[in-house]
Write a structure and sequence with these properties.
This protein has 299 residues and is mostly beta strands. The chain is 11% helix and 45% strand. The strands form four sheets. Strands 1, 2, 3, 4, 5, 6, 7, 14, 15, 16, 17, 18 and 19 form a 13-stranded mixed beta sheet that branches. Strand 15 and strand 16 form a beta hairpin. Helix 3 runs antiparallel to helix 4. The longest helix is centred in the middle third of the chain and has 10 residues. The radius of gyration is 20 Å and the shape is flat. The mean pLDDT is 89.
Length: 299
């Protein structure tokens, strides 16, 4: 059951220190605080984004957290876990672009805003100069390039890209651009991990069921290429995985689909109204059978 929201946030702050915020408060963490979040993760070549609002941080911590958006050379990691009870997977793994505090009112005297992204640093700062031997499959080249990107996490998940260059080749330039060329634009960075899948490929693992009993809200809606729906906050979902949808209203859309993107939004608090926490999910409405690809997503 989806009761008892919890979260943990790990922040890299000024001076290379790390602080932890959590609800409930655990050993070594700052006392639990109200937090609001909006996290967008999509199967797009651009970076993923997240915005967090943390209420009533102590001034000493606010000063450490502050960061100007033009401090490009300063990489500050952020990880955010959220869920229910004792289950809280990693739902955002990136870096802080900008952090600042504004004045609130009443109970919420101030709130600190963190504007974050996932993948932008890796896409911008990777550089490659290497020679590829003749006959090397594109999938292997992609995996090798992905592992050289700065600040990536986990092993890259790469699908079937069998094309080879029979005469060998020299790769020189921005690493992310080279990966996109080799994959024909199918590469993303999600939770700090490189994922490169063809449209009909999904990540292996359990296929979570989304229906009325697990939090499906309203009826799924179809666009030209996607099925969109809203559910009670669902932290298990990850980009590129297979998901089973079952609707009592639009049973026409029941089946297994590939997750193309989602947005988590909500509030987790130790005081005051908890508010809503929802996940809006987009599924690929393709005609090809889904093919699983081995790999472990970061969660």
């Amino acid at each position: 059951m989806k009761y008892g929201r919890i979260y943990k946030m790990s922040l890299e702050v000024a001076g290379g220190q790390n602080i932890t915020l959590s609800l409930p408060a655990n050993g070594g963490s700052t006392p639990a605080l109200a937090i609001e979040f909006e996290i967008k993760r999509e199967y797009l070549a651009s970076s993923q984004t997240a915005t967090f609002r943390i209420y009533n941080l102590p001034e000493s911590i606010r000063n450490l957290v502050w960061k100007d958006q033009y401090m490009w050379a300063q990489f500050r990691a952020i990880q955010f876990w959220a869920g229910y009870g004792t289950f809280a997977p990693l739902i955002f793994n990136g870096s802080i672009l900008r952090a600042y505090t504004v004045r609130g009112s009443g109970e919420l005297d101030n709130f600190t805003i963190l504007e974050c992204y996932d993948g932008g640093y890796q896409m911008t700062n990777g550089f490659t100069s290497t020679v590829i031997t003749p006959g090397t499959p594109a999938s292997r080249v992609i995996a090798q390039l992905a592992q050289t990107l700065p600040q990536v996490r986990g092993q890259p998940i790469v699908g079937s890209f069998p094309a080879t260059n029979l005469r060998g080749e020299v790769l020189f330039g921005n690493t992310w651009d080279l990966i996109q060329r080799k994959s024909q634009g199918q590469a993303i960075i999600d939770n700090g991990q490189v994922k490169v899948l063809n449209m009909n490929e999904t990540i292996t693992g359990d296929i979570p069921l989304i229906d009325a009993s697990t939090g499906l809200l309203g009826a799924p809606e179809r666009t030209d290429a996607l099925i969109n729906f809203t559910t009670v906050f669902e932290p298990r979902v990850t980009v590129g995985q297979a998901l089973q949808l079952k609707s009592t209203v639009n049973a026409l859309f029941d089946g297994n689909y590939k997750v193309m993107g989602f947005t988590h939004s909500g509030r987790i608090s130790e005081y005051g109204p908890a508010g809503e926490a929802r996940t809006n999910i987009s599924l690929w409405l393709g005609t090809q059978s889904l093919t699983p690809v081995a790999g472990t997503p970061i969660q």
